[in-house]
Amino acid sequence: MNDEVTDNVAARIEALRQYRILDTPPEQAFDDLTQLASFICDTPISLLTLLDKKRQWFKSKVGLSVTETPIEHAFCAHAILEQDVFVVNDATKDGRFSGNPLVTSEPFIRFYAGAPLVSSEGVALGTLCAIDNKPREITIEQQGALSALSRQATMQLELRRTLRQLTRTITEKEDALNEINELQALLPICCYCKKIRDDENFWHQVDHYIAAHSDIEFTHGICPECCLNITKEFKDEMNHDTKAKT
């Protein structure tokens, strides 16, 4: 495997993580692009590939049943290092690929043309590629069209990330508004006398306020702690009066 592909893996995986795209179901927007690539390049196979650390995974595919292959077998691992379309006219005559299992066995790749998918940060993520099982050429016009389709694929990825970011921002704002509403719904209560302030800035005893705003009815009593306090206050007051009289 090319060292450049290995060195760039961290940035590539981070970008793919932000897109949340790996191992997602097929999507029409991407399937349309591979269909167009297959039609324009007149090939039986077209793939939209994304490369992580150990594999090339196919977000969309035409003419192929498998969903991924090992990265060490990936033609796309070479294509992502190029600025323009990477073309292999006959893989059996190319020393880089002649012994590749994808050449010596199914799908018996002979022709390959791949346009890199490059993120807005300049990170190559994968390719939009056209593949044939017979040697052939590709015209300049077809290469240009393949590059244009790869840019459209990248725009779909960027749109996906932007929508996720917007959704997260909206959710965060909604959560913040809900928190504000909850705070506003809290009852202002005096920390000393425990009276509650209503919306018109009047203070009420807790039981009066709750009774006025609900169907709750109150009965009154004295808790043991308050009973002790009252008894103590009464005794203190009696002692004080006795001393005053003497």
How would you summarize what this structure contains?
It contains 8 helices and 8 strands, in the order αααβββαβαββαββαα. With 246 residues, it is an alpha+beta fold. The radius of gyration is 36 Å and the shape is rod-shaped.
Q: What Rg, in angstroms, do the CA atoms define?
A: 36 Å
Tell me what the CATH architecture of the largest domain is: 2-Layer Sandwich
Instruction: Note the total helix count.
Output: 8
Query: In angstroms, what separates the terminal alpha carbons?
Result: 106 Å
Q: Name the helix and strand elements from N-terminus to C-terminus, one letter apiece.
A: HHHEEEHEHEEHEEHH
At the first level of CATH, what is the class of the largest domain? Alpha Beta
Q: Approximately how much beta-strand content do the residues carry?
A: 15-25%
- Residue share in helices? 40-55%
CATH fold type of the largest domain: Beta-Lactamase
Query: What is the structural class?
Result: alpha+beta
Strand order of the largest sheet: 3-2-1-6-5-4
Number of strands: 8
Largest sheet: 6 strands, antiparallel
Low-confidence parts: none
Number of domains as seen in the coordinates: 2
CATH superfamily of the largest domain: GAF domain
Taking all residues together, what is the mean pLDDT?
Answer: 86
| Principal-axes shape call | rod-shaped
